[in-house]
Write a structure and sequence with these properties.
single chain; 266 residues; alpha/beta; Metallo-beta-lactamase, Chain A; binds zinc ion
């Protein structure tokens, strides 16, 4: 079994049916959460997944729309984790972990949540070079530095699950690591915060983000099978067809703009 569920596909500011970007990868042996914005407990609840069911949590970077749900996840584990159930493993960069730890300690002080934080298994990675790790039997994860923010360096990630490859850019403007990361992926989940059609002045991807055109070009160059556009800016609500068309001008495979709650099975 391999499924990916889109818990949210919005950008920094949530919009109707577009809460912050987060994804759930479920296999027979793992339940991996990718990013956790402020509404993550509600997003998990919407697909009837308890925080205690997570086996791994990956956090791409420390911007609030990707990380501010972390204290609430820790609180949920502290209060509800069944004693016979192992805590999930946190995977993130060393730099992002320092922020997560600080936010949790400033939120809950020296109490049960801090004890839970200290007990969390964690794998801390460099933010500026690629890394590889084994998450579970048959699940390899590769992280790659993206190009988003000097303050909040981003790790994109590729998951090799059996013969299936899922690749995630998280937040990024064009950079040379996207295509190697996404090479031959069954699904590339690429941010598209802007539109080159609707905002031609942003076609080169400034402000740390990408357009649907850039996502389409990367999907074509990496020869992926399918492209999902996510992290659409709130100004693009209702413009999903234009975003899809913008990417399809560059990429002949399947392009989708998923909404929260949608699951793809492989
Ligand atoms: Zn960001």
């Amino acid at each position: 079994m391999l499924e990916i569920t889109f818990l949210g596909t919005g950008a920094a500011l949530p919009m109707y049916r577009g809460s912050n970007s987060a994804y759930l990868i479920r296999t027979d042996t793992a339940c991996i959460l990718f990013d956790c914005g402020p509404a993550i407990l509600q997003q998990l609840d919407a697909v009837t997944v308890r925080p205690s069911e997570l086996s791994h949590v990956f956090i791409s970077h420390r911007h609030g729309d990707h990380a501010l749900g972390f204290p609430m996840l820790v609180l949920a584990w502290a209060l509800e984790q069944p004693p016979d159930q192992p805590l999930p493993t946190i995977v993130t960069s060393i730099l992002t972990w320092a922020s997560l730890e600080t936010v949790l300690k400033h939120s809950y002080g020296d109490d049960i949540a801090v004890k839970c934080l200290q007990a969390l298994p964690r794998i801390l990675l460099p933010h500026d070079v690629p890394a590889q790790l084994t998450l579970a039997d048959n699940i390899q994860m590769h992280t790659y530095p993206m190009n988003h923010s000097a303050f909040a360096p981003v790790l994109g990630a590729k998951f090799e699950i059996g013969a299936t490859i899922l690749a995630f850019t998280a937040d990024t403007m064009p950079c040379e690591t996207i295509v190697p990361m996404a090479k031959d992926a069954d699904l590339l989940i690429h941010e598209a915060n802007f539109s080159a059609i609707l905002q031609p002045e942003l076609a080169q991807g400034p402000y740390g983000h990408s357009t649907a055109q850039i996502a389409g070009r990367n999907a074509h160059a990496a020869q992926v099978k399918r492209l999902a556009l996510v992290h659409l800016g709130s100004h693009l609500q209702g413009k999903e067809d234009i975003m899809r068309e913008e990417a399809q001008r560059e990429f002949s495979g399947i392009v989708s703009v998923p909404v929260a709650g949608v699951t793809y099975a492989f």
